[in-house]
Amino acid sequence: MSKQSSHLTQLFAAVALVLSMTSAQAQPGMGQAAGQGQPQLTQEQQQLLQKMQQTQQQLQQTQQQLQTYQQQAYEQTPELQKKRQALQDKIAEKMNTGGYDAEQEMKALNDMVAKYQNSGQKPSQEAIQAYQKRQRTFQQKQQQAFQDPEVQKMSNNLQTQVRNVMTEMAPKSKQLMATMQRQIKELQSLRQQLQGMMGR
User: Fold this and answer.
1) What's the pTM?
2) Measured in whole angstroms, how far is the alpha carbon of residue 110 from the centre of its chain?
């Protein structure tokens, strides 16, 4: 089961990578579409989009700092490593229902990421859509697993212990967690505002 846990950990990193790839590809696409007969963004919309992108960059920086502290917490606390592995194993167990194989799907998604990461080429729209479809199914299975009371209890316990270790090791991490929550809310608000403007 430890091998499966390692694979699932790799998947979470792979998902983040592809999301960043698709996000980067989508941004120039907006500009290209605007130049192909579609309505140009108004100055107000452009300013809002720019602010949204800046907030997203700030959020990514905050998350990177927290990930560094989190990694240090795991590296220096073997008990956390054991509990994280136990949680990942339990999630995989709950996901594998109705003939679904979480590890097999993880490998397929990981291979799709590696194809573009290793070659340096950009994924086509069809490849992105195919990935997103399988990713959504994986996430739905994952969300269902997290609704399981046993998984929730294990997850909450682990999160609490990780936060405690992080704040002991680096008191700054507590402030970073609050900053991250604020940035997430701000980004959601900006997206809603932009969607409202585009829908006028």
Assistant:
1) 0.63
2) 14
